[in-house]
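User: Please predict structures.

Assistant: First:
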Amino acid sequence: MPSKIRCSLLAFLLTSIVIVMLQVPVSQASEAIVSVELYESSANVGQTFTVNLTIWTVQNLYGVGLTLKWNATVLRLENFDVRFGELDGVLFNPIYIAENLTLEGNYFLSATSTNPAPSFNGSGNAAKLTFRVLVPSETTLDLQTQLYDYPPPDRDPRISLPIAHVTTDAVFHGVIPEFSSTPIFLVFLFLAVLASILVKQIFRMRSRQNLLVDSKTREYTGRP
């Protein structure tokens, strides 16, 4: 009996390990991602740049909640374009947008599809944001998200449940504009020429003063 029990336990453990090994790749492959997508990670002070809030490889999506935070002394939000129901977006119409607003250093967006819209599967943008760089500094674009599924008819109670996903932030750098070397060279050349002219004028003035002093000295001493 002990030998049979040990064999049964070993078989059970081996079966469990195989099941876990088979399930882990599927879970990782199907996990949704919500990310801050930067076209460029830096821009000059005074320039604008665009950010996409993108949802990747999601299944059975029916509701979205997003909060984006940043340093308001570094960036100013100029425009926010909701992409729900668009060709490059997520969710299907009809869509109810519960929240779409900005406060200092924060952007809030939440929406859900409504009957008879189907659930969304795939990848797309939730919003496209345009920022202006205020100072040469760094800020994190911190994204907080909630995703909700479409409840199947046999779910009791029939409510939407959260969809497991990964959220990725981004870091942006505001920089001081670089000046071309050509204007600097021209300014330097102009200053050099101006300095040369001034030196020559000073030299001529001193020469004239010396001649005048020498002439006065000869008159006073009676020397020829």
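Second:
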Amino acid sequence: MPKNILNFPSPSPEFKLNINQPTAIYDIATHLRGIMHEAAANDHDLVILCIGTDRSTGDSLGPLTGSKLRSFNPYPHIYGTLDDPVHASNLHDNIQSIQTKFDNPFIIAVDACLGRLESVGCVSLGRGPLKPGAAVKKDLPSIGDAYVTGIVNVSGFMEHLVLQSTRLSLVMKMADTIAHAFSYGLRTYNR
């Protein structure tokens, strides 16, 4: 594993915290910086892929995060916004576009997910791909070298309805937290 640059901590296999913690943005940004700097040290082009649709409140975390991040930071390699979402119908095309455009992409995928009641409102970060659409039984390709997921509601029963009835307030707070954390992380990303 490459040496950690600028003494940013290497994230554990998965880091999880509630967005209501006072240091949530800072803690997420610190872990994202570690991931970003390892990508830069290995000569990767960093791509942020925000997955979801604005047609479902719970599933809008990705495009909301992408749009907010674009407004906070001019970083050019952000895919998935409210105006141009990356969702089940166009995920394959976007993956192909990224693979064609970048020689050595390092993709951080952002998506909403469902989980246990006590985890609703938590953000998880980790290395490895995420499996979009798993909660609603969609067969989509795994994507990403690292991931950020926001647990927006409870899983286990009628997942489509649960995503539709997720509180917009929670999704907006999560998108703000994740977008600010990415923006802070990108400030020290030199590529």
